[in-house]
Amino acid sequence: TGLFFEATAAGAITFANAYTFPTADGTAGQVLTTNGAGQLSFASSGTGGWSVIGASQTLAVNTGYICTTGAALSLALPATSAVGDTIEVALDGSTSWTITQPNAGTQIRIGSSETTLGVGGSLASTAVGDSIKLVCETANARWIVVSIVGNITVV
């Protein structure tokens, strides 16, 4: 009948001569993914979940944030992002949030407007209930707002 599983001396496991599994564990929350040629590896699942926050911080890709406590929160976009990464932010209790840009090449498009290119650009909430969803359009540089509730200030 043939081998369905094969293990190498290095610890790699191949299933049905089609899929080769990684030799080490992934980290919490990662999933197995394929490169289309049968090589499996661990990768982020694309759904980092939601966090309730009350302090300024750097945002993580594929994560949502509910700002519930604290004064005006400064939320920095990550310096590293890939096309298709998402970030969502909602205001429900904090005074406000401002999404800042991490470097000279970063910019955010919101409708027909754009933030100032670089670290001087930002988006800011104006009232409780404001929320926004951003998608990375150009790796490490350009984000686009694909969903918005409320009136967001563009700088």
Blueprint of the fold:
Layout: E1 5-7, E2 13-15, E3 19-21, E4 30-34, E5 40-44, E6 50-53, E7 57-58, E8 63-67, E9 72-76, E10 86-91, E11 96-100, E12 107-110, E13 113-114, E14 122-124, E15 131-138, E16 142-149, E17 153-154
Parallel strand pairs: 6-8, 7-9, 8-10, 9-11, 12-16
Antiparallel strand pairs: 1-2, 2-3, 4-5, 10-15, 11-14, 12-13, 14-17, 15-16
List the keywords.
5-stranded mixed beta sheet; 155 residues; mainly beta
- Per DSSP, the total helix count is 0
Q: How many extended strands?
A: 17
Taking all Cα atoms into account, the compactness measure Rg is 20 Å
| Distance between the first and last residues' Cα | 67 Å
Identify the strand order in the major beta sheet: 6-8-10-15-16-12-13
What integer is the average pLDDT?
88
- Helical proportion, percent range: under 10%
Compact description:
The chain has 155 residues and is mainly beta. It contains no helices and 17 strands.
If you had to describe this structure to a student in words, what would you say it looks like?
The chain has 155 residues and is mainly β. 0% of the residues lie in helices and 47% in strands. The chain has no helices and 17 strands. The protein has a 7-stranded mixed beta sheet with strand order 6-8-10-15-16-12-13, with no helix packed on it. Strand 1 and strand 2 form a beta hairpin. The chain is elongated. It starts with a strand and ends with a strand.
